[in-house]
Amino acid sequence: MSLKVGTTSGIYYAAREAELHSAIRKLGYTLTRGASAMELAVDVAHEVTFTQGQEIRHMARKQGVIINLHGDLSVPMEMPERGEWRDSQDRIKKSLRSAIFAGAKYIDFHACLNIWLELITYAGRKLTMSFCDPDGQFISEILYKSKPTREWFIKYKGDHYLNDVLDRDENIRLSTRIRVDSERWEKEETERRMRAALATILNEPVPRAARNTPDGIIIPHVRDLIDEIVDSALIRGVPYRTENPKVEAVIKKTLDELAVVRSEESARLRDRTVDQFLREKLSDPDLKRRRWHSEELRAMVGIVDGYHIMTHYMFYTQDPLWLAMAGQYKDVLQRYGYDTKNPDWLEETWKKAESLNDRDYKEFFYAAASAKYIEGHMRAALNWLNGDFIKKELPQLTKDPKERAELTAVARSLIIGLENPDAREPSHAGLYFLYRPKQIYAAVKTIRRVLKTDKVMMIADFEHLATQGIDAILEARDFIAKTPDFGALTISCHSNHPNPLHAHYPLELGDVVLYELLYHLRVTGFGRDREAYMIFERGGGQDPFVHSVDSLRLMAEFLLKDPPVPVDDLPLEFFGMKGLTGGDIQRQMQIVRDKAFEPMKDLLTIPEEDFTLLSQTAIRGGKRPEVWKRGEFR
């Protein structure tokens, strides 16, 4: 297969240029750059309409250019909130429509949009939340399916969400059950303690005189006496009066001890009763009976709770994505004594990581959960694409069987690429859910296996990686070069120099840093089994491209050799000093000589005089002063 060199069109809201006013103008302008492929960057998800798509596909066919599309830049696929999940999926569908109408080979989505949930402020966000699972269903379904997750939720989160789970009638039943259970315990505990205490001082038989009651009733047996004392404490609520001081002292001491433990035991009894009540509701097979009173959660909790629920579900079920991400962070998990047999390991580890401010663990935590939500979005997108879109929407859009067949083929072959995101704010560098190559690699490879699809791939962007505070070269050497199929799972690379400033400035000839990054992709399978793309992302300015396309073409030439040319073996031609890229080396050296003194031009000055210090010598040599005065080098 081959490597196609292309450029992006740019987006209007960033560059504000006239050539970016519409999708058609973006295509027309980019066609003048001399590339064989282009990535149409949309400002809004629904930018390419069906009608515009017909024109774009026609232009692309006539010009022999491959179209790809960068989807909506505001798709928070990683969010655990049901409303945001639905909005994200809607934008994904709209972006997919735009890509299909444009005849795109792949569509690009950023793997995540947001920073860690604990850093998100409430400004501009919903005041209530509705947590969801990866498929957009309310979180109660995960708690129903997984008993360990349910038990963890009851133990650590039950009190926080009690009023959201139970309706008014259930709260009344719960209160009644707590009261009844409390009264039962109190009676049983009073009787047990009384009998145990009295049995030590009363022996059977007891002298008749010692068994006289205050009412003058004679109790013939010690057991009857104990029954009378217990009944007095439980039914009449007053201590039993007897002429025996020793018995009265034991009764008083027992009741005092009971008063001390009553409050503690009542709290424990309430906890057990609430836990059991929640357990019965959350595990009820009947959907109506286990439905929560309110799915708009009003509890004063952070949105990070949604991730805690999801990660516990993944941990207890040993989800494939959990295992894949744990494999990338073995050293981090070993520091915390990773133990799948300890049901509280995840809860304890989070608290410890919080106290230590351990970014490495949180990087793993957020990557694992966000990958699961991306899996759900990919499943929903592919099901919609191969189902409702092809079978229902396309027949309504066009009656032309040839056009329908063309768009169906585009839809079935469309690759969804997940790109590592840029850090929009420098202060948030390294605090995104999925931004490292190893995270996205683990997510994409596992999602492909779980969903049984080859339509989900990676898009590498080393400039984005640099904005996250990562040295792209070191990352590529440490991970990409050591992962044999990393390049094979990559459909495209946004080929800009890894600049932390996210400048998108034009490429220069001989950029060995970018070449090395592309080299590591190539030797791990980039463009070997299928066509892959090297895309320059344009910035702004009078000429956003300059020599960028030429530079990438030259890189592709050396990458396509078998084997690819290592960085240390690159010839002079790569640096523009030989061949068509810059003329032969002799001509270039002559140009250097001719221009050698130009940097000094107008920098050296002397006072203007009629004659210089050498004028006397010139006169002695037979030169008239006027001639010397007019000389070129006076």
Give the key terms.
634 residues, alpha/beta, TIM Barrel, 8-stranded parallel β-barrel, 24 helices
Provide structural commentary.
The two termini are 67 Å apart. 52% of the residues lie in helices and 7% in strands. The protein has helices at 12-15, 23-30, 50-63, 82-102, 140-145, 147-165, 168-199, 222-236, 245-282, 287-290, 304-317, 320-328, 330-335, 345-356, 359-397, 401-413, 437-451, 462-467, 472-478, 512-523, 548-559, 585-594, 615-620, 625-629, and strands at residues 3-8, 37-41, 66-70, 106-110, 415-419, 456-461, 490-494, 532-536. It has an eight-stranded parallel barrel with strand order 1-2-3-4-5-6-7-8, surrounded by five helices. Among the domains are: 3-116 and 363-546, TIM Barrel, CATH 3.20.20; 168-290, no CATH class. Helix 20 links the parallel strand 7 and strand 8. With 634 residues, it is α/β, with parallel strands linked by helices.
Task: Write a concise synopsis of the structure shown.
It is built from 24 helices and 8 strands.
Summarize the SSE layout with pairings.
Elements: E1 3-8, H1 12-15, H2 23-30, E2 37-41, H3 50-63, E3 66-70, H4 82-102, E4 106-110, H5 140-145, H6 147-165, H7 168-199, H8 222-236, H9 245-282, H10 287-290, H11 304-317, H12 320-328, H13 330-335, H14 345-356, H15 359-397, H16 401-413, E5 415-419, H17 437-451, E6 456-461, H18 462-467, H19 472-478, E7 490-494, H20 512-523, E8 532-536, H21 548-559, H22 585-594, H23 615-620, H24 625-629
